[in-house]
């Protein structure tokens, strides 16, 4: 009996590992920045280029930083959701306009809607490197103390918003 | 008249043929140096060979033409110029992108299986093989033949030899 059971168990263990492997996404590289202070930045605003926005201005509130660009196709997929989220007033979204051109970026916002409280310009991608950006769109949830609590790599989906992001934001907003 | 024209056409044809024989030089610009300082470039290349491009995952940053790799290369050049050590630069990148960016990740609790998993599997497999071979050796028993059986066997073999000779 054991003769047959041992290979069966071995196979089942192997199958379990492979099954887990199938559901993993190698593109979702865990960010070392989770639960670490969000990198500070001082960047020019997209709409009013003479004005500078500093990340410190957002201390004391829960906010979302969405990395986007007009050349990014996947950004279009998530954009209606961001517009909707912004309308709901649950959380302010700040846009990091990543390696883009000002005019096309402004046109893009005009065409698809502007969910951002403020869009800031990272034309050479320096702040992007600080945030560990490697695939746009990426979205960060940052808490009142300026700590990164969540990073979404790739477009935000209805599922990720409802199951992870919004509950997390509500929880963080409860904290002092 | 016709003859003259014929001559002109021939001459023109000949000139055309000569024109075709002119080697067309490919005019290309001189290669733009990748960096002003080859020393920096050398260090940058050595560093990026062991770094993973996160966009194209199975390519080192040194070989990759992805926008991401361009940015990292530029960042590394700038940091080398700013007199950062190799360790500082690697740490800078690990802080932002995690150990995943390293092709040679450090040994720590999350990477133990990565480093030693294959060796552990090998030891288990080797153990199983040894156990299996030992068991098999026990199973093989020498069957001793009686004198009578030996004689019969010899007789049968001899018979066969004779049969072949015939």
**Assembly of the depicted chains:** heterodimer
**Proportion of beta-strand residues of chain A:** 15-25%
Protein chain pair with the most extensive contact, residues per chain = A-B, 17 and 15 residues
Total separate domains of chain A: 1
Helix content of chain A: 40-55%
Radius of gyration of chain B: 39 Å
Task: Tell me the strand percentage band of chain B.
Answer: under 5%
- Principal-axis shape of chain B: flat
Per CATH, the architecture of the domain at 38-104 in chain B is Orthogonal Bundle
Low-confidence stretches of chain B: none
Gyration radius of chain A, to the nearest Å? 20 Å
Question: Structural class, from helix and strand content of chain A?
Answer: alpha/beta
What's the total helix number of chain A? 5
Report how far apart the termini of chain A are.
62 Å
Tally of separate helices of chain B:
6
The biggest beta sheet of chain B reads:
none
Shape of chain A: elongated
Structure description:
The complex is a heterodimer of chains A (176) and B (166). Chain A has 176 residues and is an alpha/beta fold. In chain A, the strands form two sheets. Chain A has a five-stranded mixed sheet. The relative contact order of chain A is 0.19. Helices cover 40% and strands 19% of the residues of chain A. The mean pLDDT of chain A is 92. Chain A has a single domain, classed as 3-Layer(aba) Sandwich (Glutaredoxin). Chain A has five helices and seven strands. Chain B is mainly α. Among the domains of chain B are: 67 residues, Cytochrome C biogenesis protein (Helicase, Ruva Protein, domain 3), CATH 1.10.8.640; 29 residues. Helix content of chain B is 63%, strand content 0%. In chain B, α2 packs across α3. The longest helix of chain B has 28 residues. In chain B, 12% of the residues are buried. The model of chain B has no long low-confidence stretch (mean pLDDT 85). Chains A and B meet through α4 of A and α3 and α4 of B.
């Amino acid at each position: 009996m054991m003769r047959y059971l041992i290979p069966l168990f071995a196979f089942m263990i192997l199958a379990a590992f492979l099954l887990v492997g199938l559901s993993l996404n190698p593109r979702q590289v865990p960010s070392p920045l989770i639960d670490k202070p969000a990198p500070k930045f001082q960047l020019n605003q997209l709409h009013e280029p003479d004005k500078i926005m500093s990340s410190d201005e957002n201390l004391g509130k829960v906010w979302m930083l969405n990395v986007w660009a007009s050349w990014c196709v996947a950004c279009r997929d998530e954009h209606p959701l961001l517009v909707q989220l912004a309308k709901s007033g649950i959380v302010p979204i700040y846009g990091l306009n990543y390696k883009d051109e000002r005019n096309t970026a402004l046109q893009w916002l005009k065409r698809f809607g502007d969910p951002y409280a403020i869009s800031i310009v990272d034309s050479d991608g320096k702040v992007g490197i600080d945030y560990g950006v490697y695939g746009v769109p990426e979205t960060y949830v940052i808490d009142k103390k300026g700590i990164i609590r969540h990073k979404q790599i790739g477009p935000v989906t209805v599922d990720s918003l409802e199951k992870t992001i919004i509950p997390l934001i509500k929880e963080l907003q409860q904290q002092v | 008249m016709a003859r003259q024209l014929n001559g002109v056409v021939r001459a023109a044809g000949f000139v055309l043929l000569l024109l075709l024989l002119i080697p067309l030089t490919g005019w290309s610009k001189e290669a733009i140096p990748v960096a002003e300082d080859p020393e920096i470039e050398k260090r940058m290349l050595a560093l990026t060979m062991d770094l993973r491009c996160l966009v194209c995952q199975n390519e080192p940053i040194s070989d990759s033409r992805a926008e991401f790799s361009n940015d990292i290369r530029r960042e590394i050049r700038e940091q080398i110029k700013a007199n950062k050590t190799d360790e500082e630069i690697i740490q800078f990148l690990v802080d932002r992108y995690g150990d995943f960016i390293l092709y040679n990740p450090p040994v720590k609790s999350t990477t133990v299986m990565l480093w030693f998993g294959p060796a552990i599997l090998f030891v288990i497999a080797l153990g199983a093989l040894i156990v299996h071979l030992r068991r098999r050796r026990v199973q093989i028993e020498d069957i001793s033949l009686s004198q009578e059986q030996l004689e019969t066997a010899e007789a049968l073999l001899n018979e066969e030899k004779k049969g072949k000779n015939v």
